[in-house]
Structures are given as C-alpha cells and as structure tokens.
Amino acid sequence: MSAALEPGWLNVLETEFEKQYMKDLKAFLLSEKENGFTVFPKGADIFNAFNYTPFDKVKVVILGQDPYHGDGQAHGLSFSVKKGVTVPPSLKNIYKELETDIEGFKTPNHGNLTQWAEEGVLLLNATLTVRAHQPGSHQGKGWEAFTDQAISQLSNQKTGLVFLLWGKFAQNKSLLIDEQKHTVIKSAHPSPFSAYNGFFGSKPFSKTNAALTKQGLQPVNWQIS
Predict the structure, then answer these.
(1) Closest residue by Cα to residue 224 from 26, 25, 80, 48
(2) Which residues contact 214 (CB under 8 A, 6 or more apart)?
(3) Is the dihedral of CA 73, 76, 78, 80 positive or negative?
(4) Dihedrals φ, ψ of 183, to 5°?
(5) Contact yes or no for 96/199 (Cβ under 8 A)
(6) If you write DSSP's letter for every residue of the chain in order, what string do you get?
(7) 30-83, pLDDT tens digit by residue?
(8) Can you say how many angstroms the Cα of residue 109 is from the centroid of all Cα atoms in its chain?
(9) CB atoms < 10 A from the CB of 213, how many?
(10) Which of 19, 68, 153, 186 could potentially form a cystine with 74 if both were Cys, beta carbons 3.0 to 4.6 Å apart?
C-alpha cells in the first residue's frame, strides 16, 4: 500500500504502514474482496488525495467523511466525481456557494475537482474506502487513524494552511490542528440537509483566498474548466 504514496507524503506517513492497525486494515480490505464485495474507489485511486496534492504543495485542506458509495462516483478526492458522473447534491451546493462567493465563478458541467487538488487543495476523506452502496461501511477499520496522522503532520510541519471544516464530523478534527499556526474556517456541511443552516453565505472560498493572500501566497483559482 505504501508504495502508492507520493514521496513527500510517504516521508511523513511511512511508519504508519508498519503499525498493526494498518496491517489489520489491509487484511480487512482483502477480506472484503474475497467475500465478493465491491469496494470504492478502485485500488489505484485510494490515495489520489495525497498523490494529486503532494505534501510540499498543500495550501488548503477540505475534509470529507466517506467516499461516495454509488457506482462510478468515488475516485479518491473528497466531494469530487469524475467527468460524466452526475454531480452529487453536496457538490451542487458547493458550486452554488461559489457562485455567490467568488465573483465571476461559473458552475462547470461536471464534478471533477482535480484542478483544485493540483493547485494545492487537499481533498481528503477521513475514511478512504467504502463498500459499494453501503455508506459508512468502512468506518472504524483504521483509516481514521491514518488520515488523522496526515492532518497532524500537516499541522505540525507546516504553517499558514487553511482548513475548511464543514459539519460536526469535520469540525471535530480541529483538535488535531494548531490554530495558532493555521486558519480554520468552520461552517455547516454543504449537504441538502444542512446547507441552509450555515453553509450558504459562509463565504469559505473568499475567506480562504484572503488568508492565503495575507501571507503572500497565491490564492486558489476556484474556477473549474
């Protein structure tokens, strides 16, 4: 598993792969396949969040909970789907907020957020796999310890990052973040169940760019082509 990781991330996370929880997680994933269950995303995409956004390039972190569990949706980036896949409701709401938050933003006709990842936006889910059509099915199997370590390493080794924490689950991860060194922006989750309770109008994207600009860093170009 570790061989698939971007070198910068491998440098800070390699020891995790030797720990018992990761060995147990690997055994669990193998047993899922042996028992005939489909696991999303496919193996080559599991670590895409890390591989599209190298450790040294991370400027912003958007934290999700689980990969999408529908056919063809998950490809290793939180909130993102490949081109040709119907844009999920939460991402539609993210686009709606972008239209009011970022002047000139035009909603794309797809949901692939790879451009953000390549700009330094780490699109990280707390759990990196899921059983097809069973949301939450791989929670508590070890992934959270791994991704918590990733967040902790970012907090400890870098300064001036912006963390977007949407909803209570993501906000609980603020315990891992040194808010003296980093900017943490919290709001409701963009899902249809909560977007009107504090996500819409929260302006997370312009706030992110303001925080980056204040440090002399290049703001994120949120427009997706």
Answers:
(1) 80
(2) none
(3) negative
(4) -95, 125
(5) no
(6) -GGGS-HHHHHHHGGGGGSHHHHHHHHHHHHHHHTT--EES-GGGTTHHHHHS-GGG--EEEEESS---STTT--SSTT---TTSPPPHHHHHHHHHHHHHSTT----SS---HHHHHTTEEEEESS--EETTBTTTTTTSSHHHHHHHHHHHHHHH-SS-EEEEEHHHHHGGGGGS-TTTSEEEEE--SSTTTGGGTTTT--HHHHHHHHHHHTTPPPP-----
(7) 999 999 999 999 999 999 999 999 999 999 999 999 999 999 999 999 999 999
(8) 21
(9) 11
(10) 68
Tell me the pTM: 0.96
| pLDDT tops 60 at residue 2 | no
Residue type, 182: H
Please report, as a single letter, which amino acid is at residue 36.
G
Residue given tokens 């400027």 in the structure block: 59
Active-site annotation holds for 66: yes
Among 84, 16, 79, 73, smallest CA distance to 39 is for 73
Q: To the nearest 10°, the Cα dihedral for 72, 61, 198, 87?
A: -20
Supply 149's token pair.
């370590």
